[in-house]
Write a structure and sequence with these properties.
This is Phosphate transport system regulatory protein PhoU. It is built from 6 helices and no strands. By secondary structure, it is mostly helical. It has a single domain, classed as Methane Monooxygenase Hydroxylase, Chain G, domain 1 (Up-down Bundle).
Length: 207
């Protein structure tokens, strides 16, 4: 049955619920980066978290299908859901690479990017809490700016890690492995900024 309520805040609540899944995934990634010997167990937990994200995507799409009136344009809700899911998928993909490459030792430079991912993921909840009131409170722009800054810091950390990789005595296999991992870490941080930019676009459209 269609939900005809003119004020359906359930979508905001579901977005915020999704940010808890994102934060849970990023905490596991942080743990993985420092405890590669537990990669298999952490990877299994991340797979379960990724499944929770998929279930929530399905729940949001069902809600969208059953709602006649939505607080945001339908295409914006769909895009936000896609970008939320991208963040979780990227994090889970990183854990798969740790397993695939049988990483025995992490590189110090990778911690910086992982920590930036974790910090970005923790800001997501605040971003979507503020999205509920963006028409009367413009403080959401501060969170978006902070997320953009974290991504910029990630670019520098990525370059530092790659420079160290290619300027120290490292065997060719390790170069291939860590080049891929650094690129995936950067892509994951980029996906956090992309989500923030999507939200910014939605806010500006409705301001």
């Amino acid at each position: 049955m269609f939900n005809f309520s003119p004020k359906n805040d359930k979508f905001y609540d579901l977005f915020i619920e999704f940010t808890s899944i994102i934060e849970e995934a990023s905490n596991e990634l942080t743990l993985l980066s420092r405890n590669v010997e537990d990669a298999e167990g952490i990877s299994l937990r991340l797979k379960d978290i990724e499944h929770k994200g998929d279930d929530l995507v399905h729940k949001i799409l069902q809600e969208l299908n059953n709602s006649f009136i939505t607080p945001l344009d339908r295409e914006d809700i769909l895009l936000i859901v896609k970008r939320l899911d991208d963040v979780v998928d990227n994090i889970e993909d990183i854990s798969g690479r740790y397993l695939m490459y049988d990483i025995k030792t992490s590189r110090e430079k990778s911690y910086t990017i992982v920590d930036l991912i974790n910090e970005s993921c923790k800001k997501m909840k605040d971003l979507f809490i503020k999205l509920q009131n963006f028409k009367t409170d413009d403080s959401i722009y501060k969170v978006i700016s902070e997320l953009n800054l974290l991504e910029t810091k990630g670019d520098y950390a990525y370059r530092d890690g790659m420079r160290e990789l290619f300027t120290t005595e490292v065997n060719n296999i390790e170069i291939i492995v860590w080049k891929d991992l650094y690129e995936k870490l950067e892509k994951t941080l980029d996906s956090c900024e992309t989500l923030a930019n999507v939200v910014e676009g939605v806010v500006m459209k409705h301001a």
